[in-house]
Amino acid sequence: MPEPGPAVEPESEPLDLDEQVVAFCVASVRGWTHEAATMLAETPAIAGHSFATALLLGDAERVRAEIERDPGAATRADPATGWTPLHLVCASRWYRLDSGRTAGLAEAARLLLDAGADPNAPIGGTGRSPFACAAAAASSGTGNEAVIALLLDRGATVTVDDLYMTAFSEDGYRCLGLLLGHAAAVAPDMLHAAGQVLAAPVSAGSVDGVRLLLDAGVDPRHYADDDGEPASAVYAAVHAGCPAELIALFTEHGADPRQPGPDGHTPAWLATVRGRTDLAALLGTDEAAGVSDTARFAGACLSCDRDRATHLVASDPSLIDRMDPGERAALVQAAEAGDESAVALMLELGFPLTARRDDGATALHAAAYAGDAWMVRLLLDRGADIEALDGEWHSPPLDWAVVGSGQRPTTSPRPDWGATVRLLLGAGASTAEITLTPGHPKAPSAEVASLLRAHGVGPSGEDGADGDGGADRDGDGHGGADADGDGGRS
């Protein structure tokens, strides 16, 4: 699930043009591309309003004219935000909205650089540089290769954070390749220790991304998680559900296949618990590899190996009681995948409905987010707690279903968020603290928003709200804009 953020209340009064321009600028650099495009379509005057809008839209002729009229404009920072003109060009997502603006943005950047703009100047003396803004923009979709290549040519400094951001790009790693080539020439030692960058392709299960980084000299023995904390590369890859080929790449490049994860368990234990029989030869399945009998039991259940699972529990009835939370979480994994046979087997053999995965989600949370009404009904019929709160966002299953309807994960083979929400509402799920916020970045589907409105949900608790909005709970639920301007990775 994505990181939550604050709800944004709808405006009660129409914005004047200056206010619309401010909102447009924020949307254009935060990656809220739909909102930015809608604003410009509804108010075309935004385009010609200011130097800032010319920069964001890649209007190179207007940028050239402004620099000729006022040379200092090329480097003058906004007194309120500290952003320079080059920051705006580099952070703009308009190359994604309109490919015809890509060349204009690159030309605007060239004009600013020729006039003295610094690609490494931080915002307000402490924040992101223009180059870091360009790298961050790449993290939420595709990057502006032309701008990134130009900045590198003009002396931009590549940091580990920049590599990390571009490693999330959906452009076939072209921008990451540009940065790696530059870093290999000027800072090979930095690349060697840039293990955190590997976390990006690992989160996507990308063999190509991992191979690109390893070939560039990134050492998996320096692997770090998203927070920069040292971690086991192999364990992280198993945890992310990566293919065996990716995990083999790590071991071939020196990663320790038995280095434990944050829970103290080995990669082999995690692979066993998750039913990853394809990793048995690579990681091992015996006690020497850290695999316990309780792990083998959980894995057998998840793999729907009824004979093995029943044999294990018959041989040792204490297995259920001895399972640790990570092993019990196999129930949550099966529910998320819509595997009714595995869930039914686990419940039959004694898995508790209160089992939670590491973010505190129960099986009902996972099934609700996946939009699996069949699984939700099964769990409710077995007594699952409809108001249980997860451990990270403190939200009940209904909230997860609402957010899932907008984000549409693909874990269930039969997703139907409308049916899921109707089922939860019919079973008595509370809507008392849910609000619908128009224009929310994590809005539910139109169908689900309509269902919620029919149950009295509206902005700030008001009834009968118009417009499809994001669902939020106590102002800090699942919805929310990304505060760092990096596109809000999931």
Q: Explain this structure to me?
A:
This protein is mostly helical and 490 residues long. The chain has a domain at 296-456: Alpha Horseshoe (Serine Threonine Protein Phosphatase 5, Tetratricopeptide repeat), CATH 1.25.40.20. The protein has helices at 17-30, 33-42, 51-56, 60-69, 85-91, 94-97, 102-114, 130-138, 145-153, 160-166, 174-186, 188-192, 199-204, 207-215, 233-239, 244-252, 267-273, 280-283, 293-302, 306-315, 319-322, 325-328, 330-336, 340-349, 363-370, 373-381, 397-407, 417-426, 446-454, and strands at residues 434-438, 469-473. A two-stranded antiparallel ribbon has the order 1-2. Helix 14 runs parallel beside helix 16 (244-252). The model is unreliable at 1-12, 461-470 and 472-490 (pLDDT under 50). Keywords: ANK repeat, Repeat. Residues 470-490 have a biased composition (Basic and acidic residues). ANK repeats lie at residues 359-391. Residues 435-490 are annotated as: Disordered.
Shape: flat
* Total number of beta strands: 2
In terms of DSSP E residues, the strand content is under 5%
Q: What's the CATH H-level homologous superfamily of the domain at 296-456? A: Ankyrin repeat-containing domain
